[in-house]
């Protein structure tokens, strides 16, 4: 999460081109697609994320096992044609658990990431636009959550609030994952507060809620998207960590609970390495998908980060040698 925050933390001073107008709003979606399509890392992230989305939506395409928790096979079988990744110490198919576990892992990442981003937008932009005492109070709240050690706080909250509940898990991730985005969005909103198009809206007598939603937010789309990706990455890794520690619901099927049961049954010591490697690799790949996609949204928000075409680099090199 801190790596993503570092990439997107620098607020870019908006230029006149960033002032919203009807034509630019109509092309906003095409700009996002061009940025993703023109960035190899972003395309790799999009493909990885699409694979996981398909696995979560229709797991039946990848496995014929309908109940991954059912103990229907011989214990601790090695990988074979019938069981691609072997079976667990309880007689469950590892591949089936991996496929079905994608749904819960991705659901928590998207929901927690979206809610944390919404909270970041509400607190960060409101603080910057309102100023004065509201800004001081909201900024103090943000700073408090920034300096508190996150993971120990997560463990304490999850343990005492009943971490086995999916709702509690999501709430914990949102509470501890919004402050980075709020700080970034406040910095960017402060640079926009005195722009001409906002002054015009105030002169027209528009309400503060209208100005924030329809004037400020459209100019910060790429930064909000980057914050969502960072929050989702944070949720993926933290969720897996909590479930590995036994603070999730051990009867649920997710990558974190797979690691929990593998560790409890000493999978590596008993020759069941894929029980550990497979969910760990999927967690890493899903996190990489969110991180790689973040490159495209960084480039939309900051043109200085966009790659220079090869022809232009060659021309610049020739001019420098003259």
UniProtKB/TrEMBL annotation:
It is found in: Cell membrane. Keywords: Cell membrane, Membrane, Transmembrane, Transmembrane helix, Transport. The keyword Zinc-finger does not apply. The keyword Transmembrane helix applies. This is Peptide/nickel transport system permease protein. Residues 1-31 are annotated as: Disordered. Belongs to the binding-protein-dependent transport system permease family. Gene3D superfamilies: MetI-like. Residues 102-294 form the ABC transmembrane type-1 domain. One of its GO terms (cellular component) is plasma membrane. It comes from the Bacteria. It is a multi-pass membrane protein. GO terms for molecular function: dipeptide transmembrane transporter activity. The chain crosses the membrane at residues 42-62, 104-130, 137-160, 166-185, 210-236, 274-297.
